Please model this.
Amino acid sequence: MRGLERYLSRNGIVVRKFFLYLSKKEQKKRFLARLSKPKKNWKFSADHAREREYWNDYMDAYESIIQNTATKQAPWFVVPADNKWYTRLVVAAAIVDTLDDLKLAYPEVDAAKKKELATARRELLQHD
Model:
């Protein structure tokens, strides 16, 4: 994966990875909410309840993956996700910071181009 991310970075693609960390308590709360609302039942599988037995194993795996795949070109952002509004705020802030770091700007118009634009303006004003 790091090879792909290095390749993307060398080709001008900005890679940012977000791990939305939901606590075990909040996950249980959301699962129970899905079960209690018929319109949300489709989001739940009985496997979800069984997989919670492996919570610590999953957390260890996620930690290992994040540690072994975080690079300067493709960093991980571990974001608390129990409160959706906060999660969205943190992710948006990381994206805004990344965009600021790109130092994006409109292209400068040189003197020759300005002259060309002035000519085009005159032509447009002279004709319907």
User: Anything to note?
Assistant: The helical segments are 2-10, 24-36, 46-51, 55-69, 84-101, 111-126. The beta strands are 17-21, 76-80. The domain at 2-126 is CATH 3.40.50.300 (Rossmann fold). The chain has one domain: 2-126.
